[in-house]
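Supplementary notes for students who missed Thursday's class. We covered one full example, reproduced here. Read the sequence, then the structure, then the short commentary at the end.
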Amino acid sequence: MTRTPIATQGLHPALPAWAVVSPERLEHIERVAKLVSSWAEEMAISANERHRWLRAVWLHDALRDAPDEELEKWASSIPGHAELRHGPASAARAKAEGETDRGVLEAVRFHSHGFAEWDMAGRSLYCGDYLEPGRQRDRERRAALAARYPRDPEGVLLEVARERVSRLVASGWTLPEPTVRFWNSLVAPRSASR
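Structure (token representation):
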């Protein structure tokens, strides 16, 4: 497991020193960082906002490979396995280490489930995490959505949410309340215009 800061040229900030990630997880995080950074560049996002997006990216899976005891320490109120706990644990640890940007913390905390009140850091992370090119399933479709994101972030967000929520429903798990509110926030404006 990696427990030292990693700096990838041009994709600052970097993985925090307290992160617990496997080499494969680090490769995933780097791919998400490259994708989100390319979107920010194509969208002419300010350097400060791009930095926020990348802080969220580098933090989102920082404790994904941590032992259950560490996840319990940082996310004791979240039931379930690592898939459900690593985002809240990473956000809590980042906050304890000095991260104060609420949008970055919410992006990290809810990146697996969605959050209705997200700013663009959260929305970009949610899409980037799902669309990064290392994922094997539906590669061509994901690549097309990733290419479209800078021109249509809201449309791509809706499609990514539809796929992610559908998979969650198909799994038989209960839908977390933030996911329900997130989904409803995306489709309510569309339903009202019909």
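Commentary. The CA atoms of residues 56 and 104 lie 5 Å apart. Confidence is low (pLDDT under 50) at residues 2-9. If anything here is unclear, bring it to office hours.
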